Amino acid sequence: MSPPNSLPETVLRKLASVRRRRRALALLEAACWALLGLAVLLGVLALLPEGSAAPWIRGLARVWVAACVIVPTAMFVVPPWRRTRSWSGLARAVDDRVPETGDRLLTAVDLAGALDRDSIAEPETIRLAQQHLGAAEKIIDSVQPEQILPVTGLHPSTLLGPVAAMAIAALWSFSSGPFERGLDAVFGPVPVDESAVADAAPEDVVTLTLRNLAIRLVPPSYSGRAEVVLDGTTGDIVALPGTRVFLEAESNSAGKAAQARLESSETPVEGQLDGKRLSLEFVTDNSTWYRVLVPRGLGRAPLQSRRFVIDLLPDRPPELEVLAPAGPLTLAPADSVPMQVRASDDFALSRLEQVVLIDGNEVLRVPVAPVQGLAAYDDLLRWSPESLEGKGGDLEFVVEAWDNDLVNGPKVTRSRPVEIYVPTAKDQHRKVLALKRELADAALDMLAGLLVSNLDGQRRNQKKAVLAEHDQQAALADSFFRVASELFEAMARDDLEEGNAFAGILQLVRNLDTQWSGVVEYVENEVRAVDRPFVHPVVVRNLISGREPVISELEQIVLDLSSFIDLHQGESVRGELADLGNELADMQELLRRADDGEPMDEELAAAMQKVRERMAELAKKLADRSSGPDDGFQNSMPGALSKDLLAEVEELIKQGRFEEAMEKLREADDAVADMEEQLANEAPQMAGAQNRDALDQALSEAIEQAKELEQQQGQVLQQAKELAERFSDPQADEAIEEIRKDIAELSEQVEALREGGNGPFAPSGAERQAVRSASFEVQGVEQALNEGMPDEAAAYAREAESRLKGAARAAQDTDRAKRERAAGKLAGSIAKKLDDLDAQQRQRQAQAKQAGQQAGQQQGGVANGVAQLQQKMNEMGGSAFNPAGARGNLQNAEQLMRRAQGQLGQGDPGRAQSSGEDGQNQLRQFRESLEGTQQALREGGSGQSGPKMAQRPGQGQTRWDSQGDPEDTGKVELTDPDEFVGPEAFRALLQEGAQGDAPDRYKPLNGTYYEELVR
Fold first, then answer.
1. Cβ contact 635:623 at 8 Å
2. I need a surface site. Which of 428, 486, 498, 848 has the fewest CB within 10 A?
């Protein structure tokens, strides 16, 4: 193990010196004991008699020598070597032996390791750690390896080895004969007993001679080879196993029959002998020779030829190679894994099959491809767990290649197993539960970080500190959304998951994303984008206020996720209850048989133990659950399943009262059924932390109230439209267009004056300043007119006229002064037209204001209704089926309707109509969002099919990042701004945002730029 880089060099050298000394002492001790063992062995060998020792003595001596080396090494070298391998363990040992260190060396090693791993993030903690390392460096001089580990510290028995070795050496020098004789008897070569070597058996006597041999070889059909005819052969053949051999020859002796005997066969193959002409037929196997026999009568031995050699051609097993990813692999039923399969045989293949094994048992065997008669196969195989038809777990996938040779049995080659894990439905369900818990932990971490940040936020005004704090929160948000993405993907694969759980948790994540994205956007625009080292206190306060909805959302998410987790655990408990019911039924059957007189003591004791263990596991799982919303969750064992029940049943069994014991178990069985029914009713009655029926009713009431408000808003819009048409003035529109043309002409003249003027008649600084100021004022005229404020536009125009006249007075060039006076005159004309326009608008607004009082009151009533609905939504418990986006739509609707009310009160029905339409659109979006939520709640899976399919790999999976925005790989449709706010409101909001933190001299330019942009 490498030492920590942050550990001081002096400390490291001292610890290394201690380790070397400890290991050296260990080697010395082991060497002493090895010397003792060898000395004992030599002493024993000196007592052996002359001659070779018995085999068991020779073997025992060799084992003793090996033990003399291995045992001391294992006892005295390996343990200290392992203990000193860790620097922490070494430092702990030094601290124990040197009290002066005060356990500071171990702390120093741990701190150095933490510094190397960057596990310490706080600067103050790093400073304290470095201070401790410096203190350790100062006290390291008190550590002296010679004092800690003296040689005299070895046990006195260690000296036995050197003493014994010296004694044996002295005896050897005095008389070496006994020692050398003993060594030679045990370790010397064993003398060969020539009398024990048997003479080689002579070859069998040849009594039959064959001449004019003719052999025809018919290879086996699987080889695809042609037959071979051998004329004038010696009888030796080269053939494959399974080759049919036809032999004809002339013998030197007549007889009645002929036979062929193969090496591996006890029974000869019968042939024919016609006079001296014999013919034989046999099939080769694994024999390496054959001979021809001619039987003789009267008990005489048959005539036999020499052994003819059979040189067997090799028929090797198939060669097989499967290229697959390194295991173990985890595959869902819909996944697949590619494998390159290459198989070949020296003749031909017969089968190529894929085999799946679970616990060594074959569960699937299907052909890879038809390979009958092919010598080679090379292709890509894609295997999917779908072929297992629901089976799963840890399995092995292999490919088998079969030879087409059946002579000596089929030859098969099996590939190395590919280890694959296919999650079962229960495995996937358990994974989903673990991810739900991980998501709850991530929400708690993010919540804790935000609470701490808001608590200390008032004292932070440095940009670097604010951004560092936000980046930490963004990392926690990243972790939350990453776990959420993994959870959605796992739930999409979980066939046992409730549909409303998916829809509810998805809404939780969307709600947090809605709130968190606002915080991220604020930090990016108001903190990160501002080039100042300090953040204004107002910005910090706004940031803290903006994080409050995120905190509230996270608090509710933790509660809702706890409910979903408890519902999930309830499903697991239901499975345990089913198993307990089966075990109770089995035990009742045993009691019935015992009541009939059968001896069932051991079976009843085992069954009672299983029931006791099952009930203990059930009680533990129920205790892990929270009480649930309104204490509606079953989280304790019923009284009929208490420990006293088992004690009573056990006592009744001891007394032989089996009928009463069965009655007790029937009561327990009924309690199990009731409990299982109660757990089954939890899921449809709970949606997150809310009662499902109550939530559905609350959503229905909110939807109906929103529809009623939409209808009322439609009536207000109709009145605003009528007012706008009634008080519209086409002549005023024509006048505005004429003024716009004049403003455009004035702007061109001012810009020309700003660009010209070089040479001896260049404008002075005062003239340049006046023209530049006039340019800003002209932009202010255009902006004020676009915003519908002709009075302010007129003030800008008169200021521009004054600036241009001042520039003319400061001009040194007569031509420029003339052009500046002309531009000032045009600005004055524009100011007069704007004054006339303002007077006309004021007159119309006074009339429209009076006529629109009733519409304004109605608009205020609708806004008040929206405010009441907003308060009702905020009071609705939980967030799993209470979308934050819808609540934002409702808040926007109220603001837009309040704006429309004010515009009606100011006599501007046209803009009031636009704002009212935007508010109605926001209200409609709120209603549609609630309708979708209610549908997902009622169907318990409508939200499942859509998002689940979208989450599957390869189909545009949604990923959540620190910005809180989903990144979709599919097509993105841009939303028309009119769907959210009207053109005028959209333009006004954009212009207001454009002038946020801009310097004063740039605000007119910003307004002009964004006005042109939105137009």
1. yes
2. 486
